[in-house]
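Why do we bother with holo predictions? Because pocket geometry can differ from the apo form. Keep that in mind while you read this record for calcium ion.
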Amino acid sequence: MSRYCQYLLPMLLMLLLMSPTRAAEVKTQKELVAHRGASAYAPEHTLEAYKLAIEQGADFVEQDLQASKDGILVCLHDRTLERTTNVEEVFPERFRRVTVRGRERRQWFVVDFTLAELKQLDAGSWFDEQYSSSRIPTFQEAIDLVRGKAGLYPELKDPEFYAREGIRMEELLLVVLKRNGFQEPGAIEHTPVVIQSFSKSSLRRLKFEMGCGLPLTYLVGDLEGEDGLTHARLLEIRKFAAGIGPAKKLLLEDSELLSRAHSAGLLVTPYTFRSASVPESFDSVAAEMEYFLYELGVDSLFTDNPDQFPRR
Ligand code: G3P
Ligand code: CA
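The structure, written out:
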């Protein structure tokens, strides 16, 4: 019996320490989310940017998701194509006229193009001529590249816009994730999945109507009204989300926000840390990340510069 105890007790203790619940409760390892891939060094949301992010040690690679006319999820930040592709040259007539801040503009919407058409576009030259063969990746291509090497951090972009276009982004996302075996946390080794969105209703739908068991991050760009993100509001968010992703300035404007979020049980992952725009008070993006991670105590962050992420 005593020999039993000698081996059994330490084993039980080890299993307890390694259990997923405990890992979720106590997050000691700071995590690096590569924002649009290693987007400081390669064109955002291309396989080249994702590959570089993995080489630079990203824990997660972010994908902003849009949907094509034929219902395929693709990785692109904007819902229109003209900033990061040569769509105006390839499909000069395929624009919509929209009014932006009182001025009429022509815009080429992803949802007006089939995947075959999107694949004709050069998605890299806007960044650097050497990337002229880069293409807009599908979410499936991103999964195939990242799987087993890092986590996925897909963002549902503009789900309300797509719903008006007759496309349910939440359904599309869960179908792709399920097809790849990502229904539950920890389903695929080395590839955790976190779903993020600025749309509270979209995240609530995923959680409460669609039974999504993956962790959700609620993105917040402002403090949501005069009284801000109060403890009560954060507790409401905790009902559907595992964490919040605030614009980094919010943590400086409201110095108690981080501790309120933590005490509500929420992880905090601010965005976006980039060498292209470092605030004057920091010497470098590495110093800025160091401050947020180890002085303030955020859990993880989004950065365009994975190679500058300070590990301890
Ligand atoms: O998803 C976090 C951060 O990326 C949100 O901003 O506009 O870059 O998607 P955006
Ligand atoms: Ca994003």
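DSSP finds 13 helices and eleven strands in the chain.
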